[in-house]
What does this fold into?
Amino acid sequence: MYLLGVKIDNVDMNEVLKKIEVFLADGRQHHIVTPNPEIIVFAQKDKEFKKILNEADLSIPDGTGIIWASKILKGDIKEKVSGTDLMEELLKNQKSKCKNQNDPSSSPALAGHYGAGISKFKIFLLGGKNEAAEKIAKKFSNIVGFTENINEAVELINQGKPDILFVALGAPKQEKWIHYNIDKIPSVKVAIGVGGAFDFISGKIQRAPNFLRKIGLEWLWRFMLQPWRAKRIYNAVIKFPCLVIRARITH
It folds into this structure.
């Protein structure tokens, strides 16, 4: 469906992982975007950004607010799939080479395709701050490189020849970087903008408890930890609902 003019695919986590299987195997390059309420608000004023989002190969529903808005606007988005959760799922499979192949913590979708060779896909990390990417890279042997510096990114990515690229530059910078640079990094088959995921996965910032995530209050946790995000949180929890309600009334 289109939510305030932004395409959102009705997919759950397992379906996303299955699509990534196909993307990794088909020889083409693919851009995955992770629209959340804040991103959709940004896209209302940035036509270039909205176009990039809508041209992506897969647009996953990143936020409880997206599910709520879908219901208000009579859509059918069934499940939140956050960029952080997706990145964790893909990284978790990198550890599977050290585990029993039947370990239930490994993704059934990816395991079904790659089997014993699941650990063969390579990952590069671009962005983040304060050595967050380096901390993640130390945990997973299939991460072939990382950098916080976008000026050296293309060269380093081409040296590592990764299959998957995670970009944590924040929206809309990360989506625009991928859009304009993906053809310069031909080994990359899947590029995903993941916002603040590096901070959470590296342990730099503690993620909200599960119960807060389930009831849609992860934003409150982030505000308590990062009060400087007040304007961005306002866009997500005040401005976005107002835009959705207005759209419901006018249509």
Observations:
- The longest strand covers residues 123-127.
- Residues 96-106, 111-119 have pLDDT under 50 and may be disordered.
- Residues 2-250 form one domain.
